[in-house]
Amino acid sequence: MSKVQLLPYADFLGIRVISEDGGSPVLAMSYSEGLIGAPGRLHGGAVAGLLEIAAIAAIDATLEEPDDPRQRFKPINVTVDYIRAGKPVETYARGVAVRVGTRIGSVHVEAWQDDPTKPIAAARMKLLIAQKGEGREEA
Amino acid sequence: MIDAPPPFNPASLLGRGRSGHIVALGADYVAHGEDWCELALPYDRRLISDLATGVLASGPIVSIMDSAAGMAICLKRGKLQAHATLDLRIDYLRPARPGQTVHGRCRCYRLTRRVGFVEGVAHDGDPDDPIARVAGSFLLDNGPALSVPA
Lengths: 139, 150
Prior knowledge:
The complex is a heterodimer. Chain A has 2 helices and 6 strands. By secondary structure, chain A is α+β, with helices and mostly antiparallel strands. Chain A has one domain: Roll (Thiol Ester Dehydrase, Chain A). Chain A has a 6-stranded antiparallel beta sheet. In chain A, strand 1 (15-21) and strand 2 form a beta hairpin. The longest helix of chain A has 17 residues, at 44-60. Chain A is globular and about 45 Å long. Chain A starts with 7 loop residues before the first helix and ends in a 10-residue tail after the last strand. Chain B is an alpha+beta fold. Chain B has a single domain, classed as Thiol Ester Dehydrase, Chain A, CATH 3.10.129.10. In chain B, strands 1-2-4-5-6-3 form a 6-stranded antiparallel beta sheet. The two termini of chain B are 26 Å apart. Classes of the chains: A alpha+beta, B alpha+beta. Strand 3 (73-82) of chain A pairs antiparallel with strand 3 of chain B, so a sheet runs across the interface.
């Protein structure tokens, strides 16, 4: 899992990689007061942030070469479904790459707390993948 | 005479003495109208997704849009009352420019008895050159109005 690099925003949310399941990293987001939205519930944006990071990590994990320029992603869009209220406890997420082509990565990702079969939120995310030999500005 | 509750003021939920995710992100209240609210997120290196470019992660934009949407719903309802986000879709039109404050404005364009529908736009200085568009729906709680926590 060392190849999955989490960036400053992931640190801000308190996210780390804890394991791997079916080739996709499992992320955990520790509870902190800075994740709260309505009293006693996680903020929808914090849950969305966790889902997006898990989605990117899932695509990243499909790329073999450590310095593959395709490891640069730009989000195109994300649709988040909120299924249950997020409790103020540790939250997990794992993405499943639906398809990683040369240009587009498509991921389904779920977040859960006590029970992985009872997700609190799910999302579909599409990302542009940088092409080999392409500058980072070009999408 | 019945005392009407004071109109919902989104500014009261942010700023000094407040806590939670939006405050932790450093977001500020900007303005509101009868069915819309605008928040701002100053650039912060803690929130970037790319060390090389310094580009802001997309998650914090979702956060301010979700909060601005919730406030727009309370404004259109005329009271602080609970609701739950059902879904949010965000189109990322372009990356935010590093160093720029992101503004997010959401409008509740339709309320039914149980559901509120919201649309919104985020930009980083020029409202005519947006960085993201959002659409969302919210389940409305029809219990008693809440008071702003002290």
